[in-house]
Amino acid sequence: MNKMRFALAGISHETNTFHGTPTKYESFEKSGMLLRGKEIEKLYDSPSTIGGFYNASKDYGFDLVPLLFATTGPLGTITSEAFEKLISEIIDLIEVNGPYDAVLMSLHGAAVSEEFEDMDGEITSRVRSKIGNDIPFGINLDMHANVSEKMINNTDITTVYQTTPHLDADETGYKCAELIYRTVTKEIFPCQHVEKPPMTINIVNHNTNQEPMKSILSESRKLYLDKDVVSVSVAEGYSYSDIKKMGMSFTVITNSNINKAKEYSKKIAKYAWDKRFEMDSLAPSIEQGLKEAVSIKEKPVVLMDSGDNIGAGSSADSTHILHKAREIGVSGILQTLFDPEAVEKCMNKVGSTITLKVGGKSDSLHGDPIEVTGTIRKYFEGEFEDHGRTHGGGKYFDAGDTIVIETEDENTLILTSKRIGNTSIELYYSLGLDPISYPIIIAKGVQSPRPAFEPIASKIIALDSPGVTASGLHNFNFKNRRKPMFPFEKNESNY
How would residue 1 be classed by pLDDT, with cut points 50, 70 and 90? Predict the structure, then answer.
């Protein structure tokens, strides 16, 4: 008997529509993560969605047929050209390499193209049109997905990461593949429903290990007491995509009972809605955070630069915290900055003293360049691996050409030629730096760096810093969101 064949594909992108830099086809190429066929197999041993798909294939005895997987760091809106090239290739590969017993896709759920604000929904629509209605189709999404009815209607199984920071990508990927397998074998007949109350939440409140998200996830798991329930997914949504479907969502999948799927998704949505004011708190200012960090004797204190959250589409070169630290006399800071121009000026000058302006060059939102004088201590080619559990299951990283400068005002700056998030501390070790020895570390993010830094940090403080990913949603001019919507229209929103 021939093994069942499951097609594997994906386009994963978290689109910040407030970011001025469009995401082009070349953006995916340059990321090093535009993978085809057997190239995708390098992700099989990673704690990612695709790693989860692969583990399920081993346990349940089906073959994965890898077609195309494309991802890149969050940037601005995806060009129509990029989207059409990627989805057209996937559709062509599905046709050429078929037939299949099922299709599995790793998507993000917050992708926006110039033509399609619900790009993930459009992907599912085109795949469904190609494979027909009889082939089971499953997708696994990021917890920051803006889940739409279109995505639900075109798939049989939709699963979502249930941790922020995202440490369960492989677990939820496995579950998605398992449920699709059970659908193929007719063990289950899935019915799924998504509920979308008019609310979005401040990213500083997304941590699922803390309240109120901890209670919401705990309440959602109680639904499994009903044996008809096969999957419950809480999605926090992605507030930096200014689109109609932005916001929290609650997806329940049952076996052969759509009424229960609707009832339970509304039940958990109402539970979250009643906690909405608990999800509207703000982070302290930069100055408050720096002063608190100085007052803490045990090091290191990690300050989260929420306004320059690389994992949410920011520039990676914000200088707001460095400027404020210099103004109030705080030093001993370890920080990465994306600045290919500065890196170029430092090349082949290890050991030299240099004066140059760094950071603040991508746009006008993330501070002015800051002039520093310091000694160039290290050059690194930028590629490294992390064999631990990282946010989103990342294993392979590339900072590009990288320079370490020790400044005269006693800070250590890591200048990179590629945008790279602070989701792994292996970069520091690759550079010969011990992050534990620094009083203050600035991490560009809010939740994603936590798995890397929690084991070493005396305290982590998220800051209300300016930028294209500022935690305070009042900083943005939303034009396309639903109205009324909490927290924008606090007194008008009802559910």
Answer: low
Cα 138 to its chain centre, rounded Å, is 20
Judged against a pLDDT cut of 90, whether residue 394 lies above it is answered with no
Single out the residue of 127, 102, 106 nearest to residue 53, CA to CA. Answer: 106
More confident residue, 173 or 281: 173
User: What's the rounded mean pLDDT across residues 441-448?
Assistant: 93
Q: Where are the alpha helices (DSSP H) in 396-462?
A: 426-430, 450-453
> Using an 8 Å Cβ cutoff, are 361 and 317 in contact?
yes
CA distance 198 to 383: 42
* Amino acid sitting at position 178: E
Closest CA to 208 of 247, 166, 163: 163
CA angle 273, 172, 208 (to 5 degrees): 40
Cα 410 to its chain centre, rounded Å, is 32
Question: Per-residue pLDDT tens for 174-205?
Answer: 999 999 999 999 999 999 999 999 999 988 89
- Return the beta strands (E) in 123-276 as ranges: 137-141, 157-160, 190-195, 229-235, 249-255
Q: Which of 427, 431, 435 is nearest to 396 (CA)?
A: 427
Instruction: For residue 34, give the H/E element and its range.
Output: strand 34-36
Distance CA 375, CA 349 (A): 9
Residue-averaged pLDDT of the chain: 95
Give the DSSP letter of residue 164.
Answer: S
Residue of 426, 456, 419, 420 lying closest to 441 (CA atoms): 456
Q: What is the mean pLDDT of residues 9-18?
A: 96
Q: Which two tokens stand for residue 176?
A: 């998605």
Domains and CATH numbers, the chain: 5-279 (3.40.50.2300), 286-471 (no CATH)
Sign of CA dihedral 417, 113, 234, 271: positive
pLDDT of residue 470: 87
User: What residue type is 255 in one-letter code?
Assistant: N
Do 140 and 160 contact (CB within 8 A), yes or no? yes
Rounded to an integer, what is the distance from CA 332 to the centroid of its chain?
Answer: 29
